[in-house]
Design goal:
The protein has 177 residues and is mainly alpha-helical. It is 63% helix and 0% strand.
Length: 177
């Protein structure tokens, strides 16, 4: 019954325009969350994160500010913006942000309802390999964040301008290229 109420709410919310229209796309992912638990669907790990996991301090071919900045851009694409960068202005209103928060809460509730019916879910995740893959994804994300911070430190040490250094850093004199 709880699942039926959530899907009905989801259908009503997905019919709204604007950002709430994106809600409908998330319903399918939330409803099929048990596929992740059974290891039938796996989260993709970008190559740049796998490389960071293998060798986070690799400086091969990163001898110029432009190449350091390009590598940081690849990491930003996989990880999203770094914490030292201000959030991009999206032009959304307070009402739209509140709607986004409500749709996220509803999607979380749908995901929880879809996975609650699995008895012994934690054991199933362990036996299917889903838990191990989830840990691998988190380790790759952590390695990517660590590599990005390392590269920004290297860029700062080499007097590079952002994005090859933290956003707040101002190079002394003339920046290297």
């Amino acid at each position: 019954m709880r699942l039926l109420v959530l899907f009905t709410t989801a259908a009503l919310l997905s019919g709204c325009g604007g950002a709430m229209g994106d809600f409908g796309a998330g319903v399918g992912a939330a409803a099929t969350a048990p596929l992740d638990d059974l290891n039938l669907r796996r989260q993709y790990i970008p190559t740049v994160l796998l490389q960071a996991e293998a060798n986070p301090y690799d400086l091969r071919n990163l001898n110029q500010c432009s190449t350091i900045g390009a590598e940081i851009a690849r990491l930003n694409e996989a990880l999203g913006p770094d914490t030292d960068e201000p959030p991009a202005p999206d032009g959304s209103t307070l009402g739209e942000r509140a709607g986004d928060a409500a749709s996220k809460a509803a999607l979380d509730a749908i995901r929880d309802a879809a996975t609650d019916f699995i008895p012994g879910r934690s054991w199933i995740r362990r036996l299917s390999g889903a838990e191990q893959h989830s840990r691998h994804v988190q380790a790759a994300i952590q390695a990517g964040r660590m590599r990005r911070a390392f590269l920004k430190g290297v860029g700062m040490n080499r007097n590079c301008a952002p994005p090859a250094a933290p956003a707040w850093f101002r190079p002394r004199g003339r920046s290297q290229r």
